[in-house]
Amino acid sequence: MNPTRPPVLVVGAGPAGLVAALTLLQNGISVRIIDKEPNPRMGQRGPGIWPRSLELFNFLDVPEVNNLGKPVPIMRTYKHGTLEPLTEPSMVPHVEPTPAVPFHIPKLIGQQLLDVILRRHLEKFSCSVEMGTELRSFEQSDEGVTAVLAKNGTLETFNTKWVIGADGAKGVVRKQLGLTFLGETRDDVRMVMGDIRLHAVGLDRTYWHRFGNFKERGVSLRPTDEIGEDGWQFVISAPDVDLTKLAQSEELIMEIIASLIPTEVTFNKIVWVSEYRANIRMVNKLSEGQGFVVGDAAHVHSPTGGQGLNSGIQDAFNLGWKLALVEKGLADKSLLETYNAERLPVVSEMLERTTTILNQAMKAENMTAPRSPILFMLGINCRFSNIVLDEFAIPGKPIDAYGVLDEGNLEAGDRAPDAPNMLQVGRGESDVKTLFGLYRPSYHTVLVFAPSLAGATPILGALEAYDKSVVRSAVVLPSSAIGVPVAAPADLVLVDQDGHAYSAHLIEVGHTKVFVIRPDGVIGAIVHGAEGVKKYFSGIFLGVV
Question: For 44-64, how does the pLDDT look when each residue is reduced to its tens digit (9 = 90+)?
Answer without folding.
Answer: 998 999 999 999 999 999 999
